[in-house]
Write the structure tokens for this entry.
Amino acid sequence: MRKNRLMELSQEYRIMIIDDEPGIIDSIQALLNRNGYWCCGFTNPLEGLAEIQNNHYDLLVLDYFMQPVHGETVVEEIRKTNSELYILLLTGHKDLAPPISTIKSLDIQAYCEKSDRLDQLQLLIESGIKAVSQMRTIQQFRDGLQSILGAVPKIYQLQPIGTILEEILTQLLPMANSADAFILVDDIPGIEQGQGEKTNRSIFKGIGKYHVNIDEFPELLDHELMEAIGRARTEMTVINHPNGVIIPLGDETNAAIGAIYVSSIDADEGIKLLQIYARQAASSISNAFLHSLVNIKNEELNSTYAQLKIRYMDTIEVLRLAVDAKDEYTRGHSDRVAYYATKIGKLFGLPAHELEELRIAGIFHDIGKIGTADDILLKKQSLDKMEYEQIKQHPIKGAMILSAVSMFHDIVPIVRHHHEHIDGSGYPDGLKGDEIEMHARIISVADAFDAMMSDRHYRRHLSMDETKKQLSEGVDTQFDARVVEAFLNALSHDRELLDMITAARYDG
Ligand SMILES: [Fe+2]
């Protein structure tokens, strides 16, 4: 595998040998071919010179003493038009080598005495190719930076945000040598709206195969891509995805405001350039938002946001159903957890928007299980350590999936922490007491209640009395005491709750 890559790389470079002795050309050519390099040879220096003047070459192995033209003359001719060709001079005996002043003035990068042993020549050619490769990288960077500098004034022009995003993508594609990309940003991050609620909008723009109507966009995302976008944003790091790369966009405090996805890009240098460009793009977006607060009406955004929200909910709902469909015993589990959690939230007098958060967190709390293998999820026997560790990943995976879009940001920590225990023995972060947000403590009780009341692959359901007893026994170890108390209280007299439990037909 490694060798193939080396061969591929070597074929990227064009090497020429000019020597009036065919035997020398043959042996160098054999050496280079054996090492995977492409090369051609000329015994007539004038023919070789003409070829170099018409076609691109990276490295020239050149004999010094030749007929009818001397190597020095060949170099002089080349240097008139080409200063970049790496020239390695083959000299005769060391007394016949050109003086160092000639080597310098002709810009010859290396020289080597002719001998039967080619080890030294091989080393010099390899270091020459390395130098050429480094020069290419520097050149790519220089060109890339130049195009960034060219693009920046355009993306900084004050225009509607949709136009800016389109401009960012248009400028980015040639830099990334890609045809498809999209950008997803939070609208006006951190700004309070009229009713004291934070905006939770995402704005999307795509190009190439992602140039779709906003309502079609979520269909192009699978859960793995969403998880990767969430991870890039959460960790503010570039994520390599099987078919592309995700670059987070950060504001001046390095907080995520969105992400750019570019398909099929694999060069490290290209990614570094994109990161530089992404920083410029992010500040142009922040800049535009700042101005839009004063200047730009968001009517268009309002309607696209509403559509996007509906489509996202649809997409996530499909993912959730896929989780439920994997496991018939848990079918309906998420809906019931959502119901119990909102019921508990009401008992605590939480405002409407927090009840809605609890409902959505309940629906999506186990969404991360979509990434768990069926044979583990459905296993009837007890799980081994490795399998259990995999299951324990689901809160993290779920949080990542939901992190992809800003509208779910408030429920991300709830999903991540729904298996934390009040005494710190839970997972994934081992949080304790008040470190676990109240909403996650509520979901934890609702989740445990429904799980105990349901049949599972590995056991029958518990009775209502046994379930209540288990909840009480978990107080101050697994569960929050106030949450359990409020829920047990409701279980003893709340008619609506009891009807819901009856309708759930836990007894089958
Ligand atoms: Fe869970």
In short: The mean pLDDT is 83.
